[in-house]
Amino acid sequence: MTAEALLELEDKILSASKIMVNILAESLMHENVHGLSAPQFRILDMVFHGVDKPADVAKMLDVSPPALTWILEKLENMGFLERSHSDSDRRRVVLGLTSMGEDVVRSVNAYRRSLLVKVLGGMKDKEVAQLESALEAFSDSYMKLKEKQATRADA
Fold it and tell me: Within the chain, which residues score under 50 in pLDDT?
């Protein structure tokens, strides 16, 4: 791939990323979730999908533990998140969503999905299949990169 073609592709990926952020922002507004930013929602979504260790959240978001602690405190004060100690190890903090946090994640993601269905509905079947294949390869490549980085960090 030429440098020019690679730059063009990078621009298209960044544009698609902006669209996904817009879809999230539109979904937060549609569901009347005020005062919750996209990065804060991402944390709630991660916890909703089973990430319960603050260290894992910090690593996935590439933020320092003190920065994450501040964000978690804010989410807790807003009533979306709970921090507690593990039953098996009292030194370990465990993250969980409140019922309000779960409701927000469910409703926002449902609206996001409805918008995505509309976007995909405007595409041809062949284009959707190509997109699916390309996104799978993109995700796999990203996960391999993160695994390599984690291996180097552990060494």
Answer: none
